[in-house]
Amino acid sequence: MSYSDFTLESVLTAFQLKKVESAGLFSEIEPMPPSAYLTTGLAKKVALAAAIGTEKARSELIVADVLVELREKSNYRISFFSGIDFSVDPENDLTGVCDFLVSLSPGQLLLEAPLIILVEAKKDDPKLGIGQCIAEMLAAQRFNAEKGNDIPSIYGATTTGTEWQFLKLVDKNLQIDMEIYPIQQCDKILGILSSMVSQEA
């Protein structure tokens, strides 16, 4: 097995997580206005990514742009990685490739702890990526602990590029925001991601 084999049910059972679903878990977070560059880029790319219709197109044309913007808004104190192998615990099937990893380390040449946000891109429905995203969040939690960089919260996002859904993991307590944020609310998405970087979400 690998991250992609986990469903919501199987990951909750395998790791004995306590799940809370709530609408608007991140709704009180202040929006962060996107730059003119991101706004213009999304206006050009969202329709194109939808027309191409693959996870790869959505990742490259939308998700990567949002994370680049997050890095700039964070004054380059974070790094992000795309499509790298992140095999942390093979015995518990926490292995595989993650779409996007965000670290609180500014170094871009080497993946370093603490990891804070895992973003899983899906073609059709963000809910389809929840099990996989949670498994990756658990791996990040273990990776951070092994590196001596234990942080209180690990966050996740599962997205089609045009729709975003967010999660939060503290110890074995999992919270899932049932609200879906459309890319038209890019300022809200950036605000939520920024609050995750600041551990304020």
Task: Name the features.
alpha+beta, tt1808, chain A, eight-stranded mixed sheet, 5 helices, 8 strands, 36% helix, 23% strand
Describe what you observe in this structure:
It is globular and about 45 Å long. A hairpin with a 2-residue loop joins strand 6 (163-170) and strand 7 (173-177). It has helices at residues 8-15, 36-52, 55-73, 130-146, 186-197, and strands at residues 18-22, 79-85, 97-103, 115-121, 154-159, 163-170, 173-177, 181-182. With 201 residues, the protein is α+β, with helices and mostly antiparallel strands. Strands 1, 2, 3, 4, 5, 6, 7 and 8 form an eight-stranded mixed sheet that branches.
Helix percent reads 25-40%
Q: How would you describe the shape? A: globular
Number of strands: 8
Return the domain count. 1
Strand and helix order: HEHHEEEHEEEEH
CATH class: Alpha Beta
How much beta, percentage-wise?
Answer: 15-25%
User: Could you say what the CATH architecture is?
Assistant: Alpha-Beta Complex
Spatial extent as radius of gyration: 16 Å
Layout of secondary structure:
Blueprint: H1 8-15, E1 18-22, H2 36-52, H3 55-73, E2 79-85, E3 97-103, E4 115-121, H4 130-146, E5 154-159, E6 163-170, E7 173-177, E8 181-182, H5 186-197
Parallel strand pairs: 1-7, 4-5
Antiparallel strand pairs: 2-3, 3-4, 5-6, 6-7, 6-8
Short recap of the structure:
The protein has 201 residues and is an alpha+beta fold.
